[in-house]
Specification:
Layout (H helix, E strand, L loop, with lengths): L9 E9 L6 H8 L6 H11 L7 E9 L2 E7 L2 H8 L18 E2 L1 H11 L8 H15 L2 E2 L4 H10 L8
Parallel strand pairs: 4-5
Antiparallel strand pairs: 1-2, 2-3
Length: about 160
């Protein structure tokens, strides 16, 4: 017989979902079904809480306590950069292989780096900014009209000052 259900236990489940869309309940069921939650209801909650990230793949954290799930978005660096580009939401089924050829400012990069600071492996904020600039390079956007790697080089040489925190 399984152990008795503990109402005070907190369980965290992390999922990759497309923002603003109800995911397949078949992918949710094996993860949250044993915890006593309805996959359809949780899928609707995820869709409702990720409307701001419509069309982007993001990580969602489900905090499950006493058979109640609270949804919080854990944004990744690419999702934050694409959101900073202010591109219109796209239909995943129709538009494929989109080129993110926009331009963002160094201030946007610093803001994104501050949000990602806790999950970064860098020691200082400048290192986190370099991580974000590397992601921007792989996405294909420019920073202040320059390729992101040129900005990384100017941070290394000291031409661009990044604040401590």
């Amino acid at each position: 017989m399984p152990p008795k259900f503990d109402p005070t236990a907190i369980t965290y489940v992390y999922l990759k979902v497309v923002g603003g869309e109800v995911g397949a309940t078949s992918s949710l069921a094996p993860k949250i079904g044993p915890l006593g939650l309805s996959p359809k209801k949780v899928g609707d909650d995820i869709a409702k809480n990720t409307q701001a990230w419509k069309g982007l793949r993001i990580t969602v954290e489900l905090k499950i306590q006493n058979r109640q799930a609270t949804v919080s978005v854990v944004p990744s660096a690419p999702a934050l950069i694409i959101k900073a580009l202010k591109e219109p939401p796209r239909d995943r089924k129709k538009v494929k292989n989109i080129a993110h050829s926009g331009n963002i400012t160094i201030d946007d990069i610093i803001d994104i780096a501050r949000q990602m600071r806790l999950r970064s492996g860098a020691r200082y904020l400048s290192g986190t900014c370099k991580e974000i600039l590397g992601t921007a390079q792989s996405i294909g956007c420019t920073v202040d009209g320059q390729p992101p790697h040129d900005i990384i080089d100017s941070i290394n040489s000291g031409d661009i000052e990044i604040p401590e925190e």
